[in-house]
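Input record (one chain):
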Amino acid sequence: MTILDRYLLKRFVQVYLIAFISLYGLYVVVETFTNADDFLNGEGGPLVLMREIAIYFSYRISYMFDKIGGILTVMAAMVTLSLLLRHGELNPVLSAGVPTYRLIIPILWGALFVSVCMGANRELLIPRIAGQLQMSPGANKTTNDDLEPTLDVASLIHISGKRLNFANQSIELADFGLPPAKVTEERLITLHAKEALWKPNEYRRPGWLLKGVDTDFSRLNLTKFGKTVVYAGQSPQDVFIATDVGFDRLYNRDRNFELLSTFDLMRRMRSHSFTRVSIRKQSLHLHSRIIRPVLDLLMVVLGLPLIIRRGAAGLITNLAFCSLALGGVFAIDQGCAYLGAANMIAPDLAAWVPVIVAGTASAWVSGFIRT
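The corresponding structure, as predicted from the sequence alone:
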């Protein structure tokens, strides 16, 4: 790596960190004042309040990095190239015989490193703190009454309850309805439990462990299929119900799958427990997650000829053209996502169209670059 490469990479990192800290700081200020009443309702003095606020926002650093990391990559790359042009550092480099596209190599390495960090954050960290990310603001506010009853399409088991507990991913005062003919031999049976704990790998299957059930397991007249989804617990008042409908499906059901790892997302897409609409949205999100690093790199390549454009009137004009082009690709990306979610185009096509457009546009504008 040459001195010029290190110089550009250092500037890219500086711009990226400054932009992320600034945007996250703005988010903290706005979110704190918006939910001030929720934070102040907790018990304890100022130190306890500050501690709860610090814990709440420390978890959301990971979530914000996943959401705006790609946008900041493109922004940092454009600012780095703009500063190179603004400070008159481009002409000496070109006079030395360095190709213009050579300048983008360290920036692409920086963008690739950010993509790797985002992937590790998405696959390793976010699934571990998913419960914390779903908590509402406020001191020790680990429960939420906005539970959305859900039906397991495969077994027709209905899942509901009083409230959700994000701390241990459980349902308080849970109700599980076992349908007749499908799971039970007789009438509809509703299992009322004091608590239902989400167990991702109990009996080598994901499901809910019902604690303190009001109906003894021996009294359940299960069908042949029912015996494959309903199991006895360690005590007569414990029942395990195998299902792929997890904790995230009971609150913001069609948004919380973004907190899953790619492996869990692919496993859920192969399950028969979800509706076609849900599977389609998860498929669209999976394709978008896979192609996102490629699209970010193409956006950087697209912006370079528009910022360092030959015969341009000035830097402001270059930035305007660059912003217009990148904004167009972003609009196409959002439009395709909407069409894919609305079942108007295939999910894979909705995810790949922006990549095709960005790649084509990058090749088309490559002749505009100053050499």
